[in-house]
Amino acid sequence: MTDSRQTGAEILIRALREQGVEVVFGYPGGAVLPIYDALYKQNELRHVLVRQEGGAVHSAEGYARSSGKVGVVLVTSGPGATNAVTGLTDALLDSIPIICLTGQVPTHLIGNDAFQEADTTGITRPCTKHNYLVKSPDDVARVVHEAFLVATTGRPGPVVIDLPKDVLQLEGTYTSKEGVQLKSYRPQVQGDRERIRQAVAMMAAAKKPILYTGGGVVNAGPRASELLRELVAETGFPITSTLMGLGCYPASGKNWLGMLGMHGTYEANLAMHGSDVMINIGARFDDRVTGRISGFAPGARKIHVDIDPSSINKNVRVDLPIVGDAASVLEDMLTIWREEGYGKKADREALASWWKQIDEWRGVNCLRYRKSDTIIKPQYALERLAHHIKPYGDDVYISTEVGQHQMWAAQFLPFNQPNRWMTSGGLGTMGYGLPAAIGAQMANPGKLCIDVAGEASILMNIQEMTTATQYRLPVKVFCLNNQWMGMVRQWQELLHGERYSESYSEALPDFVKLAEAYGWVGLRADSPSDLDGLIEEMIKTDRPVFADVRVDQKENCFPMIPSGRAHNEMLLGPEDQVENPITEEGMVLV
Amino acid sequence: MIQPPSVYEFQHNEERINRHTISVLVDNEPGVLARVIGLFSGRGYNIESLTVSEVDHAEHLSRITIVTSGTAMIVEQIKAQLDRLVPVHKVRDLTLEAVHIERELALIKIVSTGERRVEALRMADIFKARVVDATLESFVFEFTGTSAEQDDFASLMRPLGLVEIVRTGVVAIGRGTATL
Ligand SMILES: Cc1ncc(C[n+]2csc(CCOP(=O)(O)OP(=O)(O)O)c2C)c(N)n1
Ligand SMILES: [Mg+2]
Prior knowledge:
The complex is a heterodimer. Chain A is an alpha/beta fold. Chain A folds into 3 domains: 6-172, 3-Layer(aba) Sandwich (Rossmann fold), CATH 3.40.50; 193-362, Rossmann fold (3-Layer(aba) Sandwich); 378-550, 3-Layer(aba) Sandwich (Rossmann fold). Helix content of chain A is 40%, strand content 16%. Chain A has a 6-stranded parallel sheet, sandwiched between helices. A 6-stranded parallel sheet of chain A has the order 11-10-9-12-13-14, sandwiched between helices. In chain A, helix 1 packs across helix 2, helix 12 packs antiparallel against helix 16 (348-363) and helix 17 (378-389) packs across helix 18. The longest helix of chain A has 16 residues, at 137-152. The termini of chain A are far apart. Chain B contains 5 helices and 9 strands. The longest helix of chain B is centred in the middle third of the chain and has 13 residues, at 72-84. The model of chain B has no long low-confidence stretch (mean pLDDT 94). Chains A and B meet through strand 6 and strand 14 of A and helix 1 and helix 2 of B. The complex binds thiamine diphosphate and magnesium ion (MG). The site of thiamine diphosphate (TPP) has 19 residues of chain A, from helix 18, helix 20 and helix 22.
């Protein structure tokens, strides 16, 4: 059938196959029926029927992040496409490669307010890396190949392909991916060698260096994480990472300072603040990381490695920008470091006293919390979870929802490999975790996939439980149920005079019964003594499990850099709140 | 690709807001202008003027000229963000990178009689504006010049019966042999 004419829908599926796609997360509707018909007639491409299009995009994100492949989504026109918008924005902010195929009304009806018509390319223009409206079946294959190129190269991101129904039904010819290119799009992979040389010289001369890494290292592929580990070993530098970059350097590594930022560790944030040379690799100086810009690492000369030139000098002015792929630049850095023999020439004495200072900060033990025999502390629940998943080593995939539980998961669960941690970083999308776990489980059959959830967030995409049931995906929801939108409650306590406006999770369902209704196993723990049994049961059950872990309602997430504060103005615990009331300026920030 | 400047290359007075004329070569495809404009509105950048037209029919290329303003850091961002758009081939800051020429074309309608009408014609002659339409009570002048000359000419014409004006916005090109 190589050169025979095929319908647009058949061409689409052939192009997806040529791109190596195995799974599509989707939901049918009138405009995409030709695609569903073509799917029906083949059995190479698997379709996972989600229960809401938002779930499809998050599942595709979980699939992509846990496998390094592209996540593919298929939704119908109008409401199908608009439901996908949150997920697309999420993927844009977290730089996740997604291809979203949207149905569209037939070309002759576009602009007529036809049934289920939405201006999908207009709506998704600001929330995609790029988007296409395909006007002819002859263009379908080329556009798919271009879209994969755009989604996966440079800084990855979501790409929408809007497909009018007539284009799917009419016949056209296929174009293979060979030779498809984009003249105007050439991401720069290799860093400027001279600048890298300068950067390495700055690193060698540093007295108080810090490596600050981010999701760019994950996106650069597993090789980047290996190179990063080598660089840390060669230089002996301390390393911290953003929420997005967890796992690139192992949490068990001796140079690891923990995550930085608003809920980062004391040692990571103070090391950032006190550093003299900062090496940012694949992170973007997000406001959750920098705190107040004017107080951000005032004494540091900053090196910034990023594949996206627009990330450079956006929030923080840097001294030495290097545009390039993290793996490629890390490789060059290592080569130069070794060639120049910097391992011997660097100021070892200064580095030793820098480490001495860092060890003092570590001694503060900033993640400590008050233990209890009667009430489950959320941190304790996660410590026990970490304990029980340890024997599974690298074969555990964790996703989260958004809120306190997300920050605690980042603080208390150790990540030793990239692509094991899926959380909505940039957009902070509640409802992300369950569909993401489903996507991760699709990509990693037989592995443990756990969504660390909050009781409020999980309700935002609770319908995806039935997706897991249908495909026999044994995902686990480990729900830290504090009966509050805990993160909102925490801000109201600290910033709004303890006026807890609408943040109580009223009328919660009985999650155990809910689980059973969906064909899952439901478990509950009310006291610390229940916890180990619950976790063991959850892990050994070869079915989807909802674990309702009833935790302390009043616990707050620390350390915390309140909005508008600098890294050295961190709150360490409840005792700090009174001494350091949050400023008016801080209050207007999010 | 141009490397982003390092901190040492920023001007000293970094908070100063300057006017920049930026040339952007793009694929002439549906939605490309919406991408550019959406970028400016979405990120809160200024557009003082924007012109666009196809310049190479065979290659489907259009050239956009944008006049914007911002601090050195913002203008760097604007250029990097523009360059990031998939259908964008080239971005050049003519203000920083090239000695260049800027022009705008205006059509200006004057309704007046008697001495004011005569005076309007005299001023147009001094400014080398062309009469492209005339009735017994009106003229339409075609005038080409820099934005500042446009402002000057319009303000002179206002008391002489200017009732309507339309301007193309700035188009710009580098001097000498260098091209975009
Ligand atoms: C879609 C969406 N709506 C609102 C918010 C604002 N928000 C952030 S955290 C949070 C509360 C989350 O509560 P829960 O899931 O119970 O987590 P907890 O903080 O209690 O651990 C809210 C409402 C958000 N991040 N996403
Ligand atoms: Mg909660």
